[in-house]
Amino acid sequence: MTPETRFQAGSISKPVAAMAALHLVEEGKLGLDQDANAELSSWKIPLGPEAVGKAVTLRELLTHTAGTTVHGFPGYAHGEPVPTLVQVLNGEAPANTPVIKVATVPGSQWNYSGGGFTIMQMMAVDAAKEPFPKLMHDVVLSPIGMRHSTYDQPLPTAETRSATPYNQDGTPVAGGPHTYPEMAAAGLWTTASDLARYIIENQRSLVGNANHVLSQAMTKQMLTPGIGNWGLGVQIGGSKEDPYFTHEGVNAGFESVFVAYENHGDGAVVMTNAQGGQRLAKELLQSIATEYDWPNFRGKMMVKLDPSILEKYAGTYDLAPSSSLTFTVEGNQLFGAMNHQGKTPIFAESETHFFLKVADVQIDFLKDGQGQVTGVVVHQNGEDQKGVRRK
After folding, report:
1. Predicted pLDDT at 221
2. Cα–Cα dist 375/202, whole Å
3. Cα(first)–Cα(last) distance of the chain, in Å?
């Protein structure tokens, strides 16, 4: 490993790709709030009855509010046939994901969709009339100085300085890195140093000191939180006085995360080449946050609680409008699962205050006058969500 070793960035491809789309908006080649189908020439978004006649916009695609399907992409292992972009969009063989379509009313709710960014990729290609890797190089990567980054999929054979991806059990991913034709959603090859340059560009553009890709006004718009605390391609967290923008990325054998504060120069990038690497990445972020006294992500002082205390919190808590959080105890460890998905370990800072190591989330358990646990409050991204324990 060297500072020039390339990693697959996974979904961190999205915020970098979003800058190209917004650059095309500022050039007048795309509209942020126009009907996306009116700007697509190579393919059209399938609009079923769920769309109720409402057009999808680029703004909605970038903020995960377009109602589009397909959360993420597994990529294509070495030797497997790789579909064209249109085949991916249509869910046609050899694509390994279903058709990307509108499943809920556009603009009505937040739902993470790599499919939406794949539609954005098609819009950008149609508008720029050139291959997506060339567009990204010319309007984003080169102007920022990301010299060791590319959206080429697969990585050209001459580019040998890349990390080997590993499975969670320590074995290399068979055949090496997967290929991702869904370039805007998952196709970026980059280095931690280059992603730091992306961060610095946006921090400086916010105050009018860089603006190699976007104007100050567009950068501010990109980092303005909407539904679900997402801006145009990035998640927004922290407080109103001290916000940060962030994104995580997971590809086959690669896991990474970056965090960047808007109002000062603080930020960090951690890239790993192993499944499960985000656990390490987020522990490193905690150490950095603690050392530099960040208001978020700092390591917590853990306390050990008797399993009899943890058992009092076991159960399911209903969160508005349709989510639930279930806690279980295994040995001396409390686990939480959102909507009965995978379990995540929860750690105690006091008898009633808990936190996650894998995300900037805190949990407080609520008790009534008799000491019975009646509810929970989840603190995340500057918001509090209350849950009521099921009887």
Report:
1. 98
2. 40
3. 54
- Give the separation between CA 172 and CA 189, rounded to whole angstroms: 18
| 233/382 same-domain check | no
* 159 has pLDDT over 70: no
Token pair for 105: 């009313």
Residue 26: exposure state from Cβ atoms within 10 A (0-12, 13-18, ≥19) = middle
Q: Which two tokens stand for residue 136?
A: 């990204």
Predicted confidence (pLDDT) at residue 72 exceeds the cutoff of 90: yes
Residues 237 and 338 placed together within one structural domain of the fold? no
Q: What is the pLDDT of residue 96?
A: 97
Contact by Cβ (8 Å): 196, 24: no
156 and 110 within one domain: yes
Tell me which residue range forms the domain holding 314: 307-389
Cα–Cα distance, 6 to 23 (Å, whole number): 25
pTM: 0.79
Q: What's the domain count of the chain?
A: 2
Domain membership of residue 297 (yes or no) is no
Is 1 part of a structural domain of the chain? no
Token pair of 177 as six digits: 């890195």
Question: 195: helix, coil or strand?
Answer: helix
381 shares a domain with 269: no
